[in-house]
Specification:
Blueprint: E1 2-6, E2 9-17, E3 23-31, E4 57-61, H1 66-75, E5 81-86, E6 90-96, E7 106-107, E8 119-123, H2 130-141, E9 148-152, H3 160-163, H4 171-178, H5 186-200, E10 203-207, H6 217-222, E11 225-230, H7 236-246, E12 250-257, E13 262-267, E14 272-277, H8 289-296
Length: 301
């Protein structure tokens, strides 16, 4: 396996063959800096690993900004075809020079497995800090195991990009611009995506928004565990009824979120219950150690 590392980006080149007999190469991206960030000015110093076979297509895989993917697609243009791997559905062909592969075709890479790893659903009422907490948990876990995925199963326009914006930019404006709406296929789509992620990722974190809705039943069926983060104590029972009683999911923790800096553990079993905060964009705080250890235990399930 050839690899290069420079400017906070590591590339690994490997080869494989689809079930249909199509040979391919995988260019895997790993962001190596502690904050998992890469800057546009780094592009000029990035070097691809040696040994790329232009007669064979390449699937780009891994976490990285859109502009890095755009640069790599351009650099890999001489190869037979280029695809971008989305672990939720497969490798989508975005450029091709061969009749056997078409643009928009979805290729399934690697071996299909029936093993399903855990999926942790993060729930709770609006304005409780779910998105900030989920993002912080994701950032903390990838320092331990890079094979973690955060799935935003909500249409409110919020994503990792809004939480990583500089403080002087209006995150709410970006959210409003990208906000979508509920459709009949929205939650079934995300449920299928979660199941596919569970076949590939050590742990999938799922942010499903702030309302108890019967339409979310497919998400319940796709997940295994849940964590409640709530700024309203009287809302906790509704989420237990929804996730544990209706969905048969296993509770991991209940966090009573606070705008004040506080960390008080109320119970350890059968799940952690604590008061903790604040969970506000731009005010980074670590995941409590005991909670982190409990969630890391899911990686061994």
């Amino acid at each position: 396996m050839a690899q290069t590392t420079n400017r906070g980006v590591q590339f690994k080149l490997s080869r494989g063959r689809t079930r249909e007999g199509l040979d391919y190469q995988v260019l895997a991206i790993e962001l190596t800096r502690p904050d998992r960030l890469v800057s546009p000015e780094d592009l000029g110093a990035i070097e691809l690993p040696p040994g790329i076979d232009t007669r064979v297509g390449v699937a780009i895989d891994g976490r990285g900004p859109i502009w890095l993917y755009g640069y790599l697609i351009h650099e890999l243009h001489p190869t037979a075809w280029v695809a971008c791997n989305d672990p939720r559905i497969g490798a989508i062909v975005v450029a091709t020079h061969t009749k056997g592969v078409r643009v928009g075709q979805i290729l399934q890479l690697g071996q299909v497995t029936d093993t399903l790893n855990p999926a942790l659903m993060v729930v709770g009422p609006p304005d409780s800090g779910k998105s900030v907490f989920s993002h912080r948990l994701f950032q903390s876990l990838i320092e331990v195991n890079s094979n973690i995925y955060l799935q935003r199963a909500n249409w409110d326009g919020e994503g990792n990009y809004t939480l990583e914006l500089p403080p002087d930019l209006d995150a709410e404006g970006f959210k409003a611009t990208n906000k979508g709406g509920l459709s009949d296929r929205f939650f079934p789509y995300h449920a299928r995506a979660i199941l596919e992620l569970r076949r590939q990722k050590a742990l999938t974190i799922v942010d499903v928004g702030g309302m108890v809705q019967p339409e979310k039943q497919p998400i319940l069926e796709a997940c295994t565990h849940y964590l409640i983060i709530s700024s309203q104590r009287d809302a906790v029972d509704d989420w237990h009824e929804f996730c544990r009683d209706r969905g048969n999911l296993t509770p991991v923790a209940v966090i009573h979120s606070s705008l004040e800096e506080v960390e008080i553990v109320h119970q350890q079993q059968p799940f952690i219950e604590m008061t903790c905060g604040p969970w506000i964009r731009g005010q980074s705080r670590p995941i409590p150690e005991g909670l982190m250890e409990r969630i890391k235990g899911l990686l061994n399930k």
